[in-house]
Amino acid sequence: MDVEATRTILLAVRGPITAADVPQLCDQLAARLRESDATDAVCDVGALGRPTAVTVNALARLQLVARRRGCRIRLSGAGPELLLLLELVGLTEVFRADEPGGGPVETGPDPPPVRRA
């Protein structure tokens, strides 16, 4: 059995995030995933401050970027307000949460494998 090692990158997301910041964050994650060939990304959200709808939008879009590259994304440092907001907008299946403050929060099921040429 050939088991490939997990390669992880860290993306620190600091707040407050504006709508204008979201495309740049997505581009940054896509570039880092391309360059590293990572299979996992940890998104450190501990310095976001008070979460807003823009925060949720940014995280959802980052999740889409990661999944398109066949990568799993986890949240680190997610506070109770952010976890509650994700629940209120119906993203608990996308951003499943462990106990608040209990390490990285894995988001969603494993992505499908990426076919590489």
What labels would you give this structure?
single chain, Transcription Regulator spoIIAA, 3 helices, 34% helix, 15% strand, disordered C terminus
Describe the structure.
It comes from Streptomyces niveus. InterPro entries: MlaB-like_STAS (IPR058548), STAS_dom (IPR002645), STAS_dom_sf (IPR036513). Pfam families: STAS_2. Residues 97-117 are annotated as: Disordered. This is STAS domain-containing protein. The structure is a single chain. A four-stranded mixed beta sheet has the order 1-2-3-4, covered by helices on one side. It has a single domain, classed as STAS domain (Transcription Regulator spoIIAA, 2-Layer Sandwich), CATH 3.30.750.24. Residues 96-117 have low confidence and may be disordered. Strand 2, helix 2 and strand 3 (72-76) form a beta-alpha-beta unit. Helix 1 (22-36) runs parallel beside helix 2. 34% of the residues lie in helices and 15% in strands. The longest helix is centred in the middle third of the chain and has 16 residues, at 53-68. With 117 residues, the protein is an alpha/beta fold. The chain is globular and about 35 Å long.
